[in-house]
Amino acid sequence: MKSIEKRRKTTTSTEVKRRYNDKVYSKVQAELPKEIVSAFRAKCAGKNVSQASVILEGIEKSPPTRGRDDLGQVWDAANRVTKEIAGAAGLSQRKPAEHFMIPYRTMEGKKKALD
Predict the structure, then answer these.
(1) pTM for this one?
(2) How far apart are CA 115 and CA 110, in angstroms?
């Protein structure tokens, strides 16, 4: 019986653990203000949940329509001419120029450059 009690626990080397983690896991890093990180850590600790589980839940609940569709919409909006923007808003072409305090002739020049 004494031989069982004296049996030494085996330890896994740091190198073996690092190789396993490199094989199984990937890192995701984000630089955030210290206040946000502290609040996130405190909230996770207060609810007794892991930080990884909170992030995973956020990914799983994120809206499914993300990615190329969104980028396409941004591209389309950014490349609309003044006439289209004003028309969609039900305004004359002069109204956006007045609203944004841009000389109308400048906006006309932009329109001609895009045509």
Answers:
(1) 0.39
(2) 9
